[in-house]
Amino acid sequence: MHVHLVFVTKFRHKVFTDRHLTRTEQIMRDVCHDFEAELVEFNGENNHVHLLVNYPPKVAVARLVNSLKGVSSRRLRQEFPDLVRHYYRANKLWSGSYFAGSVAGAPLSIVRQYIEQQNHPG
């Protein structure tokens, strides 16, 4: 099963540079691996990220999302002290909400192309 996920930063603050996004992708790949899922595509901008994840039916999307957001928030805070000023109330980097869309009906190539076209900040 495939899901397109979008996570936005708290208050949509522009916090990410290319190095943050590169590390975020690796962290999220590791989390997906722990869930026996595959991060098929990743991209983002300074205030949000897009993921295309292939996950097994036994995985609840909400659990996967909670781990992706929680682990990435914690590790980014540890590894990039410059991001700490963007962690508001309760040390949260991400907004509490997220977008999750099933892409079973859409060709994966179209979703992948959309995600690839999301620009990294310069």
Automatic annotation (TrEMBL):
Entries under Pfam families matching the protein: Y1_Tnp
Lineage, highest ranks first: Bacteria, Bacillati, Actinomycetota, Actinomycetes, Micromonosporales
Species whose genome carries this gene: Actinocatenispora sera
Limits of the Transposase IS200-like domain: 2-118
NCBIfam families, sorted: transpos_IS200 (NF033573)
GO terms of molecular function: DNA binding; transposase activity
Protein name: IS200/IS605 family transposase
SMART domains in the cross-refs: Y1_Tnp
SUPFAM superfamilies reported in the protein's UniProt record: Transposase IS200-like
BP-aspect Gene Ontology terms: DNA transposition
InterPro entries reported in the protein's UniProt record: Transposase_17, Transposase_17_sf
